[in-house]
Amino acid sequence: AGDPARVARILEFMRIVGKLKEVKRTGWVRSGVKDAESVSDHMYRMAMMGFAMGSPDGVDSGKCIKMALVHDLGESIIGDLVVEGNQQDKITREEKQRKERQAVHDICAGIGGPTGEEIRDLWEEFEAGETAEARHLKDLDKFEMVLQASEYEESQSMELSDFYRTTEGKFATPLFQQLDAEIRLRRTR
Predict the structure, then answer these.
(1) 1 pLDDT higher than 70
(2) Is the model's pLDDT at 89 over the cut of 90?
(3) What global pTM score does this model have?
(4) Which residue range(s) make up the domain with 124?
């Protein structure tokens, strides 16, 4: 027979991850978007984008996919808090990061073992933003939001300028600078 404690930890982890399907992306909700995407929707597309892009400039795409799947994991506990733009919550970037770090560390302690360590390490690497993979994924995170904004503008005939304003000139890598420029060009047509 299996280890009942391990089975219980895995099941609890899956329930926590499942909460991300219920957490709607705050910026979209506050902007009046109908049927706004969930945090889970956002993370899934980021992972697929990372997969589809392969390994630009030697970036480890497998690591990027994993990082995409964990980068917002803490939001299953603290929610999707906004710290910039017109949709800000009354919380500093530092306080949000502290709450999210605690949530991620608690989740990782719950699942335990090498998996918990890997998730925590990937999350910390993303937050630090110092490795090629973390920089790539931070750009991918912002770009996924810009792409989603363009899709909502088109499908719901609405203006979402704040999402473009908060990301303008913020892309660090040439690939995402080009992708962002193309989205902005298409928006003006």
Answers:
(1) no
(2) no
(3) 0.92
(4) 4-186
Q: Per-residue confidence at 33, pLDDT binned at 50, 70, 90?
A: very high
Q: For the chain, percent helix, then strand, then coil, each to nearest 5?
A: 70, 0, 30
Q: Are 76 and 20 in contact (CB under 8 A)?
A: yes
Task: Give the whole-angstrom CA distance, residue 85 versus residue 68.
Answer: 23
Cα separation values, 30 from 36, 50, 91, 139, 167, Å: 10, 28, 16, 23, 18
Give Rg (Cα) of the chain: 17
Q: ∠ CA(33), CA(16), CA(104), 5° rounding?
A: 95
For residues 8 and 29, give the distance between their C-alpha atoms in angstroms, rounded to a whole number: 34
Q: Indicate which CATH number applies to the domain containing 16.
A: 1.10.3210.10
Length of the chain: 189
Quote the CA–CA distance of 95 and 74 in Å, as a whole number: 13
Domain count, the chain: 1
CB burial string 142-175: b at 16+ within 10 A, e below: bbbbbebbbebbeeeeeebebbbebbeeebebeb
Ramachandran quadrant class, 173 (left: phi over 0; alpha: psi -120 to 50; beta: rest): beta
